[in-house]
Amino acid sequence: MTKKTLARPPGIERKIDIALTQDWSTLSKRARDPNPQSDTFLPSECLVHLLRDAIRRGDDRIARVLMPQLLRRAEDNLKLTVPNGRMRDAESVRHDILSDLAMMFTQDGTEGHEDELDFYECRFGRSLRFLRIDRVRKAVAARRQLTDLPQNDGRDALALDDEMLARLSRVASIGPSQEDALFLPEVIAALDNLPADQKEAVVLRRIIGHEEDAAAKILDVDGRTVRNRLSRADKKLKTLKEDL
């Protein structure tokens, strides 16, 4: 690491150098060692570096061993920091955080993501904490905006096209700009014209941004049902003619 602020903890560089010389079998055993006091234990910072290196070299065999172990450690941390009793939909939030982390590795080195994982190589626990806080805040903000959807007050239905769906999704996921904050009540009013099951599908998938399997679990249906509800909802929303 070239930046002082990104210096690895003492001993990590040496552990990485040793691990890079080891074969698949040895790394596989070391990655599964859960004891931080063990001589063979690989700190999470090491796993991040080794995983990035394997992906960049196209060594899928090593990547397939290291990725599940790193995500399992992250999941163990999240079960303590985002427990089921602390917030609604905690399991889905944990899933989203793990998905975000995994996505960083698939995007690593691409334009705009050149150094996104550098901090994880230096302070994995702190980096995961920042990711967790960001995701939890977004989930709480999205729920706050979508609580108590207004009942249909007899106004004409409003148009909702692809641009509007994207705009509403943006409001829920990154916090509304002044323009989008003014736009939100009108879009919610359009949603309120939908049957309850279709509205739930739009909210979970298009607004909060849950993956299909997470939405299906929340709704206690299968993924195909979620897709069908979403498809019917989109058709109804796109037939509304009034521009916003």
Short description:
With 244 residues, the chain is mainly alpha-helical.
In helices, the fraction of residues equals 55-70%
The H-and-E topology, N to C, reads as: HHHHHHHHHHHH
H/I helix tally: 12
Q: In total, how many beta strands?
A: 0
Could you report the average pLDDT, rounded to the nearest whole number? 77
* Share of β-strand residues: under 5%
The termini sit apart by 50 Å
Low-confidence blocks of residues: 148-161, 171-185, 240-244
Structural class based on helices, strands and sheet pairing: mainly alpha
> Radius of gyration in whole Å, from Cα?
22 Å
Shape: elongated
Tell me about the biggest sheet?
none
Report on this structure.
This protein is an all-alpha fold. Helices cover 66% and strands 0% of the residues. It is built from 12 helices and no strands. Helix 2 runs parallel beside helix 4, helix 3 (44-57) runs antiparallel to helix 4 and helix 10 (196-207) crosses helix 12 (223-238). The model is unreliable at 148-161, 171-185 and 240-244 (pLDDT under 50).
